[in-house]
Amino acid sequence: MISKIERNKLNKEKSLFDAGYDLFINQGINDTSISQISKAAGVGKGTFYLYFKDKYDLLDRITIRKSSEILNEAQKITEERQLTLFTDQVDCFIESILMILENERLLLKLIHKNLSWPLLQKAIHDHDNIQSVYTMFKKGYIENILATENIDVSLYMIIELTGSIAYNAIIKQEPYDLETIKPHLFSTINKIIME
Amino acid sequence: MISKIERNKLNKEKSLFDAGYDLFINQGINDTSISQISKAAGVGKGTFYLYFKDKYDLLDRITIRKSSEILNEAQKITEERQLTLFTDQVDCFIESILMILENERLLLKLIHKNLSWPLLQKAIHDHDNIQSVYTMFKKGYIENILATENIDVSLYMIIELTGSIAYNAIIKQEPYDLETIKPHLFSTINKIIME
Amino acid sequence: MISKIERNKLNKEKSLFDAGYDLFINQGINDTSISQISKAAGVGKGTFYLYFKDKYDLLDRITIRKSSEILNEAQKITEERQLTLFTDQVDCFIESILMILENERLLLKLIHKNLSWPLLQKAIHDHDNIQSVYTMFKKGYIENILATENIDVSLYMIIELTGSIAYNAIIKQEPYDLETIKPHLFSTINKIIME
Amino acid sequence: MISKIERNKLNKEKSLFDAGYDLFINQGINDTSISQISKAAGVGKGTFYLYFKDKYDLLDRITIRKSSEILNEAQKITEERQLTLFTDQVDCFIESILMILENERLLLKLIHKNLSWPLLQKAIHDHDNIQSVYTMFKKGYIENILATENIDVSLYMIIELTGSIAYNAIIKQEPYDLETIKPHLFSTINKIIME
DNA sequence: TATGAATGAGAATTCATTCAT
DNA sequence: GATGAATGAATTCTCATTCAT
Description:
4 copies of one chain form a homotetramer.
Chain A: H1 4-27, H2 34-41, H3 45-51, H4 55-81, H5 86-103, H6 105-114, H7 117-126, H8 131-143, H9 151-172, H10 178-193
Helix pairs in contact in A: 1-2, 1-4, 2-3, 4-5, 4-6, 4-7, 5-8, 6-9, 9-10
Chain D binds a DNA duplex through residues 3-5, 8-9, 12, 33-35, 38, 43-50, 54-55.
């Protein structure tokens, strides 16, 4: 059981986290100060430093958490569909990611500028359920008699490409909007998987 | 003939541009102030504002200029090699880009965070010689009886993927270093081109 | 006859004067720079200094000119009405001033903050036709067998009181609006004149 | 009892207030910077912004405070004299104001440019003891069977006229010095009161 | 643990003024 | 006379961080 003090502590940290998230996506990182975050969180300015080293520490934690939430969510959607073909599963997974990002443009903006592979790996490591993405891929590779030693690198390239293209398509809508580039993206992803 | 004033103006602007570039890549954008740039350029602080709106205006111009220089350079190297096979040409082009970026890690760091497709298009538009990249691709597509209507989107995806992977491999060396990921990158690029 | 150069010079000075007036009343004195004035006047920045010592030199000249224009205008209106009673003349004169000021609130704001009696005396001295205000008063005093040695001080007090009250009533509308305070103002002015 | 922090806060604010007052009257508002005020107050530059929005916020507060102090002081002097005639009381009150202003020319300069009726009303509202000015007038009006509904507007005109004339006479000594204009001012004030 | 007043370095930006052309 | 590029001092204001309570 969690003590009252413990809970209170969590509350303050959560308040700061949420306030930071709100401010970062709505007014940008450069234009958000620790004062603002503390005030929005309803805690004292000094309290911020009890939980985070500085603005960028909070930012990193937000990026990790939110990124893994997206992957998690996309994985859950894919599982629920109970698709049998591996390529359908992958398409559904990517399609879900794109859908989520399209609904949360501001979040996309934030994580695109800050998400790095190390952070993502940390996310995957910390959140067990993301492992299932990997499991899904492994199962698909075996069923399709593909070289399993390529799973990691392929997954990496797929996520990089999807991330970049999603950012340009959704945020900048340049050089192609999402609907236009999607078929090309899916085609390329399938090529990456198949030998 | 160019007047003395005109020449002097160009000098000041160039000094600011060069000083900005130096400082941005060496100490980061956030940690570079306009005061520092002006001082390093040997001009008055107010002079900065005669040529640039703010720090980010200068940054954008640097990004455009340097990006197009990279593409330009890679194209020149590829041409000089007088390769006959289209796939060899593409490989050489990408290889050249990676080589340049590896030699200018700091520049890579700078442009990766700031290069957006609109900026790159501006660069391509402003610098005629970059057109030859496109020409090279077109010639290759025709020779290989590939669908030329896909040139644009393929080129776009190739550059995005190359950029992302180069950044991770060269700067972060995660999750793969450049030599490890390169074969996979080339393989994927070839798949993108071929149907 | 005026030479072409002379005319051109006058034009530049007039342009600066008009531009300064526009900017001063529309964005305030503190927020108007010599750069802005020069640009609005369509002349070089250095040209400003050929005609005015600084911003406040221009401001003083504007204040003088505009103040005397107001007195002039009010005097003209009064004369045209051909009133026979001195008190009617005075009422008409004050009424005209108030009307002009009400129509040019921004001007009122400008001159109230900057008009000083020395400036007004200069205006009266420089613009002969304002003398007729004095003449009107003198005639009225004699006809009404009033002590003419009090003309100066009475006129002074009347203009001071009118100016202050007009500013509060028209600009701030505090503590009374113009229609409310007017009868009291007229009553007081009449008392100032009559012994 | 007031806490140590609370006391310290008041001290800082008071230091800033006093420093601002000193600098404003001695070197003018435009030529006084927030840096100077903070330094003179012996507090950090940022501390200024904890207590005042900007220079003009401080200026307004100074104007209010000092104006009400003047009225207060004049009222106290008048009361102590225990004059029986209302006109004598009024004369004494005005005379006291002029005396105070004459002794504090710099303050007169400051408040004349910035004092507006709204500010003065705020001062009167915030400082109960100024109410006694109004009480004195009311008592006088009743004793002299004057229309009490005119008290407000008369008091307003008297203060406006006195303020304007005091400024010209004391600061500019134009067009009349204080001793010359005083009898006329008193005469006019009496006329304003009497019907 | 939690607070928030205090700090002062330092950032961006403006602007009057000069002077070579 | 007319210009406008160049200057750099000066100003405002922010903000991360500290620390006494």
